[in-house]
């Protein structure tokens, strides 16, 4: 037959009204698409995944490509023509038990890569708020008080020559590394697989133009592994801050607990069991709350093992109002908003457009779910 | 005669106890120095410049080099042997009417260059606190409230592709530019003299290793001049933030007023005189409060001409508790602490050591006061 690419039926299911400038751009770049837009209600009770089945069955039947934030067909048979599902989320874990993931082989891509800029901003902002004691200054301003600022002079430091560890060197970790390097810090990266060659250090996912560490040249040192020993080697490499940007899987649940915090702070125990630390660090978690053992974190903060923590994610979410973590010493907690911003929608669609263009050129798509690894 | 460098009498006058590791390092690098350390009391009433004459006359007579934060000899005749005065401050304006400045030609160097890292951290932190609405999240946490974060989704943006204007491209401006570029922004620089050649764009002052923009390659565009027209050309270049890091001189006093804020916000006036802005910007001032017309700034903030302002400096300082600026819309005010940190002392001494080594090699010292320009 020859000719152009196959005709496709693109179904878009989002909470917002149709962003017509974006759908027009998709149509311009892919004139062989037929596009249908379905605006659904947000799921109930603060959940992400919709279980109410708002999307009509005939739309599932019709679609060959699905772009969605929170709705999947209940079973693969409901959407027999699907060639690709593109999720507006960075991770797959909300769907890890969904039949489409467990019982089908429909390719699924995430919007991983688009969260680098806003989340790195959140990481750097909260780390500086902690290290520069901004909360004190904020309260002074509310009282119209011109404070004396001795706290920073006595023990405050900046980030020049410090070492920042990034656990999980994806798009978020890379953009955070880029900014901390600009602040003067050294970067230590920790990844599951070894990154011994220049090729292996490249970012093969979607990259927001002008950001990140595309070639993986920012880190001064690379650590890797999936064992406690490899993690501990990384944590004991002299870190002043640890940024957690790992995926949550069964093997990373509660990966960071008392022992890890003590290693991070280089804590030793005297004969009488009293802890003694020779240094300390900040902990920043923007990934998933369950990566961290929260009661252990609360204790490490209150005991001064850690200098502070910035958490955009907790376990569970929302964090109950009576959870003791809210009042841990030197903690910042925000309600899973670090990735927010008006650029989100445009970038999530851009991932799909860049990716589908690769697919039509016969190139491998990026951001594909690996059903064996679970991410 | 030949032999090594001349014997010098180094007098150090600071508020703190002698930092013996630092004076030992000076002695190690300059074995031909005789060093005397005089710890003075901080001046009264929050002033910087000491007027109580705590330093004994015989010490002034003795010194050939003076390192000081807040004490100068009253007249040049009191210290007839001085070859150099090294100030622990970044600017000379506190001393601009002092007889040593007006009636002597003793070379004076500042510690300009050491403030880049901490002040750039403050600039980036406060800009992100404003643009990411962190105060809302901070208040949520105090109430143990898991907020919904819709504000950022509706109109929050990150700094990718934005334009940040830096008025005064010295060490602070360069380090701020470095970090904003890492965040994905474009940089527009504004300087008094034109920087048309690569050589003219270099930083010839002290640079904290691993920071700044030594070769001046970060800005996408350069603006220059000392007229209102040149300033307005810069301010109308599409800035999303303006960082003020200019010296305060008689000609820069109240340089930024109503008209400048309107140009920054691209404000036009309809036939009925009603202001209409097509965009807007944040204003950040870390230099001197009097560069800005404060009542005009308060009005521009409250009227929404500007998106927000972060001010580490005010006019006067301390800002009186009943000053209306404290409660301007979207303003951050901190008590002139952005340069604070424990690295300050070591770096201020390092400027002197690097500089004096240049002097002994017959090279030109940097950070020298230009008595004609006043900075």
Automatic annotation (TrEMBL), chains A, B:
It holds the Pfam family 2-Hacid_dh_C. Keywords: NAD, Oxidoreductase. Signal peptide: none annotated. GO terms for molecular function: NAD binding; oxidoreductase activity. Transmembrane segments: none annotated. CDD domains: 2-Hacid_dh_5. Residues 125-197, 225-338 form the D-isomer specific 2-hydroxyacid dehydrogenase NAD-binding domain. The keyword Magnesium does not apply. This is D-isomer specific 2-hydroxyacid dehydrogenase NAD-binding domain-containing protein. It comes from Fonsecaea pedrosoi CBS 271.37.
């Amino acid at each position: 037959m020859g000719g152009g690419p196959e005709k496709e039926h693109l179904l878009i299911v989002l909470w917002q009204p149709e962003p017509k400038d974006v759908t027009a751009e998709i149509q311009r770049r892919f004139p062989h698409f037929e596009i249908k837009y379905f605006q659904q209600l947000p799921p109930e009770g603060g959940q992400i995944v919709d279980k109410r089945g708002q999307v009509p069955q005939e739309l599932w039947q019709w679609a060959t490509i699905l772009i969605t934030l929170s709705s999947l067909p209940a079973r693969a048979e409901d959407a027999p023509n699907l060639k690709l599902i593109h999720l507006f989320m960075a991770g797959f874990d909300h769907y890890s038990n969904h039949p489409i993931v467990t019982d089908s082989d429909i390719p699924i891509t995430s919007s991983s890569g688009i969260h680098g800029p806003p989340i790195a901003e959140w990481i750097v902002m909260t780390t500086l708020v902690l290290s520069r004691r901004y909360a004190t200054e904020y309260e002074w301003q509310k009282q119209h008080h011109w404070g004396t600022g001795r706290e920073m002079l006595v023990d405050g430091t900046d980030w020049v020559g410090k070492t920042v560890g990034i656990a999980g060197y994806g798009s978020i970790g890379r953009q955070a590394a880029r900014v901390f390097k600009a602040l003067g810090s050294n970067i230590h990266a920790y990844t599951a697989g070894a990154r011994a060659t220049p090729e292996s250090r490249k970012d093969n996912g979607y990259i927001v133009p002008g950001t990140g560490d595309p070639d993986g040249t920012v880190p001064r040192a690379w650590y890797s592994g999936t064992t406690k020993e490899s993690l501990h080697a990384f944590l004991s490499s002299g870190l002043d801050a640890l940024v957690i940007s790992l995926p949550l899987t069964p093997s990373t649940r509660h990966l960071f607990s008392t022992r890890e915090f003590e290693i991070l702070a280089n804590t030793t125990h005297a004969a009488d069991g009293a802890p003694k630390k020779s240094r300390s660090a900040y902990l920043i978690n923007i990934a998933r709350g369950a990566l961290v053992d929260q009661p252990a974190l609360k204790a490490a903060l209150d005991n001064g093992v850690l200098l502070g923590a910035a958490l955009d994610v907790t376990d569970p979410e929302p964090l109950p109002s009576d959870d003791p973590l809210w009042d841990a010493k030197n903690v910042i907690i925000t309600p899973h908003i670090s990735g927010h911003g008006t650029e989100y929608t445009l970038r999530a669609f851009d991932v799909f457009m860049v990716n589908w263009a690769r697919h039509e050129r016969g190139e491998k798509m990026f951001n594909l779910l690996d059903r064996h690894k679970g991410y």
